[in-house]
Amino acid sequence: MQQEEFRKLARELKSNLSRLMEQRSTWESHWQECADFMQPRKAEITQERARGDKRNLQIFDATAIHALELLAASLHGMLTSSANRWFSLRYKESKLNSTDEAKEWLEDATDKMYVAFARSNFQQEVFEAYHDLIAFGTACLMIEEDQNDILRFSSRHIKELYIQENERGFVDTIYRRFKIPVSAAVEKFGAENLSKETNKLFLKEPFEKIELVHVVRPRTVYNELKQDKRNMPFQSIYFEFGSGHIINIGGFKELPYVIPRYLKASTEIYGRSPAMNALPDVKVLNKMVETGLKASAKQVDPPLLVPDDSMISPIRMSPGSLNYYRSGSRDRIEPLNIGQATSATLNQENQRREAIAKIFHIDQLMITQSRSMTATEVLQRNEEKMRILGPVLGRLQQELLQPMILRVFNIMLRNKLFREAPGILANQEIDIEYVSPMALAQRSQELQSLIRGLELFGQIGQIAPVQDFIDENGLVKQIISLLGLPARMIRSDNQVAELRQQRAAAQAEQQAMMQAMQEAKVAKDAAPMLRELNRGTE
Questions:
Q1: How many whole angstroms separate alpha carbon 306 and alpha carbon 254?
Q2: Alpha carbon separation from 491 to 84, 201, 504, 507 (Å, rounded)
Q3: How many domains does one find in the chain?
Q4: Cα dihedral 96/97/100/104 (nearest 10)
C-alpha cells in the first residue's frame, strides 16, 4: 500500500516539476547572458561547464563585473555587515518592552543570535546571495541546523531552483534539482532509502553523481498538536529525478529556503535585476572594446602596401631587419591607413561605462570627498546615498531578513540555546526592528525634521509656550529609536523614575538645609537688635 502511495506521489511531484521547468525556460537564456558578461563563474545555466575552465574568454571589458561586485559589497555592508548590528528584537506587546526582566531576556537572546551568526558561515554565503540577487534578480539562501556551529547557510545556484508563489505573493513552494555524488547521498540518506539502481552505482562508481530533487511545500492537512516531522507546516520530500524513487519524507517548522527577489513584476514569479537592465549597454561596450582592440592592433601593426614587382620576398617585419628592392625602382613598402578615430571610440566607450555605473548605482554609492567638505556633510551624503536603495530595502526585509531571522530564532529556541524565559513571556510574539546603516538612513529624514522642529521651537519659545506641548520622555525615546541606540546603554522607565525621585529628594533636602541656614543667619543677625531693644526698655 505504501509503495503505491509513493508511486502516486512521485508521479505528482514529477508532473509539478515539469510544469515549473516549462514556466522557467524563458528565463534561462536571459540568466545565461547576464552570467556570461557579468558573473562568468556562474555561467552554467543552459550549458554545462567543466570545473576550472576559463569562463571569461568572450569578455573584453570588466566594467560590469566590477560594478556588480561593488553593489553586492555595498548591500552587504549596509544590510548585514559583521561590523555593525543590523537587527534587534522587540515584543509586539508594547508594555513588555518597558519591563526590565523581559527586556533583559530578549537582549540576551539577541546577543546569542549574533554569536551564532558569527560562528556560522553566514557572512560568506549571504555575500554570495547578494551577487546572485544583483545578477539574476532572484537568490536562494538555505538555512539548516548544524551540530557543531548551530547554523549552516548555503547559497544555492539559480539553475537549481524552481519556485511558486502563494496568493500573498510570497514564495512558499520550492523544487530544487541538484546533483550529488552517490557516496554523499548514501551518507546523507542511508543506502536502504535509495533505489536499487543507485545502490548498484554506489558499488561500481561511488563518486559518480546522481540527480536528486528536494521539494518543500506547505502542508494543507496536519495536526498542530503533534511534534513529528509528518505534522509540520512545511512538507519536505527528497526523490531521485530519473527514477522518481521517493527517498525521504519529512517536514520543517519554517521554510528552510529564503528566496529574495531584487525587483519583481506583478505578473512574474522570478525577479528582475540591475544586470538585466545593464545587459544591452554591457554587450555594446564589450563589442566596442573588441572592435577597438582590432583597430588599435592595425594601427600598431598595420597592413602593408607592397609593390608586386619591385620588392624581393619575403618581407621581414622584425626589428632591425632588412628588406631588399630592385635597383632603380621608386616603389616603397607603405602602411595601409585605415583612418581609425581612436579618441572618438574611447569617448563612446566611456559613455557606456558611465551608463553601466549608473545602473548599478556606483555614481551614488561612491563618495568623492573634497577637502572642503565637513564631517557633517560627508555623513549627510552617506545617508542620501543609502536612501537611494530604499525601494529595494523593503522587499529585502520582507523576503530575506525577516524569514531568515525568524528561522534562526526558532532553531535556537527549539534547541534550548536561550536561557529560561520568564513566565510573563509565555505565548508572546516578537517583532524585528532593523538597525542596519541602510535602515537607519531611511529614518534619518525624520530625525532631521525633529531637529528642525526643536530649533524652531527654541526661536519662538520666548513669545509662545511651546515647551508645554513637548513630552520630554516621548522626545527622548523617539530619538533613541531613530538612532538605533542599543538598549543596554539606555535606562528603563523604572530606573529613570527612581533616579528622578532620588534627584528630587536630594534637591528637597538641599533646599531644606539652605532654608535652615538662612533662618539661622536671620536669627543670628536679629540677636544684637533684640539686645539693644531690651536695653532701651530698661
A1: 77
A2: 22, 65, 18, 21
A3: 2
A4: 110
Cβ atoms 222, 379 nearer than 8 A: no
CA 177, 79, 279 angle in degrees (round to 5)?
Answer: 60
Question: Quick one: which of 195, 169, 199, 196 has its CA closest to 183?
Answer: 199
Q: What is the DSSP letter of 325?
A: B
Query: Which of 198, 233, 259 is a domain's end point?
Result: 259
pLDDT in tens, 36-88: 999 999 999 998 888 888 888 889 999 999 999 999 998 898 889 888 889 98
DSSP 394-406: HHHIIIIIHHHHH
Place of cell 510574539: 429
Task: Please report the DSSP string for 346-395 in residue order.
Answer: HHHHHHHHHHHHHHTTHHHHS----TT--HHHHHHHHHHHHHHTHHHHHH
Measured CA to CA, the distance from residue 520 to residue 16 in angstroms comes to: 96
Phi, psi of 25 (to 5 degrees): -60, -35
Tell me what the mean pLDDT of segment 281-303 comes to: 85
End-to-end CA distance of the chain: 129
- Per mean pLDDT, which range of 5-9, 125-129, 221-225 is the poorest? 221-225
For 85, the grid coordinates are: 548590528
| DSSP secondary structure letters along 283-300 | HHHHHHHHHHHHHHHHHH
d(CA 386, CA 365) in angstroms, rounded, equals 7
> What SS3 state is found at 319?
coil
- The pTM (predicted TM-score) of the whole model is 0.81
- Cell numbers found for residue 366: 561612491
The one-letter amino acid at 196? K
Residue type, 146: D
Q: C-alpha grid cell for residue 184?
A: 554523499
Q: For residue 358, tell me if it sits in a domain.
A: no
320: left (phi over 0), alpha (psi -120 to 50) or beta: left
Whether residue 58 lies inside any domain: the answer is: no
Does residue 379 sit within a domain? no
Contact assessment for residue 285 and residue 349, using Cβ atoms and an 8 Å cutoff: yes
- Residue range(s) defining the domain that contains residue 238: 1-48+140-259
Phi then psi dihedrals of residue 53, to 5 deg: -80, 165
| Cβ atoms 494, 100 nearer than 8 A | yes
- For residue 509, what is its C-alpha cell? 533636602
* Percent of the chain as helix, strand, coil, to the nearest 5: 55, 15, 30
CA distance 365 to 369: 12
pLDDT in tens, 403-439: 999 999 999 999 999 988 888 777 788 888 887 776 6
CA distance 323 to 317: 9
Closest CA to 445 of 368, 390, 375, 374: 390
